[in-house]
Amino acid sequence: MGVARTSLDYDCDWIYGFNTNPGGYGTVGYLMFWSGCGGLSLAKDIQVWNPFNTPGQTVVTGALINCVGVIERYSFAGDDDDPIRVSCYVSKDNAANVRAKLASPVSSTKVQVGWYIIGFDEDRKAWYEAAFINGGSNANANLDTTDGELQISIANKPTPIHRGIDIKVYKLEFQLIPAAGAQSTLEFPTGSTQKIVKTWGSSDDDD
């Protein structure tokens, strides 16, 4: 009998992420770092309020979070070689840079990516860090391919962050696989007192 797989999927309230308020709570995610594809480095040009901002937060501290994008969905089946898929919203300038890079074949599929998801423990009425890379570091990865197609896309049309607010963002989606010979320790607390730890990738250089 096989061992049950642990699927780690997070549907984040990205609209709340852009429009936090003291009385609200939910699951909120941030793309903290993205660099690769032979010279594409996305700027941390989105600044939002940090709904956590209390003792116990380690990856990010302070009233504000500076990030590359606000996450809508994060999906990971849980095994060390499973892909990680992220959809998030980025600025107009970052969207333009992605679009320009993808206009021609990329010179490398290697990327470094960092993410950070926080959730709210309703039983304990406390925020907790729900998904991050151990030590707040970045993961070494490659963009995945399906039937020869690179798994990254950027929307051409903008999405307003809220009715009545004249700020628009663009959906960025990408799927990652661990880089050869690279290993990251991923932490997934399931509340303010328990967590799941997963190893992503392998220190073995062999395919």
Strand content: over 45%
**Could you give the distance between the termini?**
27 Å
Number of domains: 1
Order of helices and strands: EHEEEEEEHEEEEEEEEEE
Shape: globular
- Tell me the Rg in angstroms: 17 Å
Strand order of the largest sheet: 2-6-7-15-10-8
**How many helical elements?**
2
Number of strands: 17
Largest sheet: 6 strands, antiparallel, barrel
Average predicted local confidence, pLDDT: 92
- Provide the helix percentage: under 10%
Q: Look at the helices and sheets and give the structural class.
A: mainly beta
**Low-pLDDT ranges:** none
Explained architecture:
The protein is mainly beta and 207 residues long. The chain has one domain (8-201). The chain has two helices and 17 strands. The chain has a six-stranded antiparallel beta barrel. A hairpin with a 3-residue loop joins β2 and β3 (40-41).
Question: Can you describe this structure in just a few lines?
Answer:
The chain has 207 residues and is mainly beta. Helix content is 8%, strand content 49%. It has one domain.
Main features:
about 210 residues, mainly beta, two-stranded antiparallel sheet, globular
What is the fold's blueprint, element by element?
Elements (H helix, E strand, L loop, with lengths): L7 E4 L2 H5 L9 E9 L3 E2 L4 E4 L14 E4 L1 E8 L7 E7 L1 H11 L7 E12 L4 E8 L5 E5 L1 E2 L2 E2 L1 E3 L4 E4 L2 E14 L4 E7 L5 E7 L6
Antiparallel strand pairs: 1-6, 2-3, 2-6, 2-8, 4-5, 6-7, 7-15, 8-9, 8-10, 9-16, 10-15, 11-12, 13-15, 14-15, 16-17
